[in-house]
């Protein structure tokens, strides 16, 4: 009988997922999605292949579960950080900083590569996790307009432009000692883009 980790089936499930996700996170950063195998993940996580297959029948389902877990934790972190700021300018700065720091911390395949690697339904599930982040950005942008912190613009246009700018890995792939300066330059860029400097 396989060894139960953590003393109960629920604790075992959480422990297996935590170990597997830690390994997957590292391997995505080191190798990229295409080079990952379930067998390799299981071995590196110290769990049996059958235990891994019980949780994740294929590589695609593993990636989807991992993204769902990461996204849920990030949305909580983002919500708490943004809501700690009263002024929309500070909220938008916080949003930009977190987006870029997370981009620097995690390596995921670019959207187009991910779309071609996954079945359409799996890709839609992963893409859906951007919705709460987009909703948070929309709330910041409309809140800034409501409080007169920047001029009214079509939020869909601003969201598309901000998202494109913050999704550029080149921003965070330079020397680590320069990252803070790059992030703050991006904050200033986004604030100027929404018109905060004009108010």
Q: SSE layout and pairings?
A:
Blueprint: H1 9-30, H2 38-45, H3 49-55, H4 59-83, H5 88-105, H6 111-117, H7 120-127, H8 131-146, H9 155-166, H10 179-194
Helix pairs in contact: 1-2, 2-3, 4-5, 4-7, 5-8, 5-10, 8-9, 9-10
Quick structural summary:
The chain is mostly helical and 199 residues long. Helix content is 70%, strand content 0%.
Please explain how this structure is put together:
With 199 residues, the chain is mainly α. It folds into 2 domains: 57 residues, Orthogonal Bundle (Arc Repressor Mutant, subunit A); 136 residues, Tetracycline Repressor, domain 2 (Orthogonal Bundle). 70% of the residues lie in helices and 0% in strands. It has 10 helices and no strands. The mean pLDDT is 85. This is TetR/AcrR family transcriptional regulator. It holds the Pfam family TetR_N. InterPro entries: Homeodomain-like_sf (IPR009057), HTH-type_TetR-like_transc_reg (IPR050109), HTH_TetR (IPR001647), Tet_transcr_reg_TetR-rel_C_sf (IPR036271). Keywords: DNA-binding, Transcription, Transcription regulation.
Q: What are the low-pLDDT stretches, counting only 5+ consecutive residues below 50? A: none
Name the helicity range: 55-70%
| Broad structural category | mainly alpha
Output the CATH homologous superfamily of the largest domain: Tetracycline Repressor, domain 2
State mean pLDDT (0 to 100 scale): 85
Order of helices and strands: HHHHHHHHHH
Query: Cα distance, first to last residue?
Result: 67 Å
Determine the number of helices (DSSP H or I, runs of at least 4 residues). Answer: 10
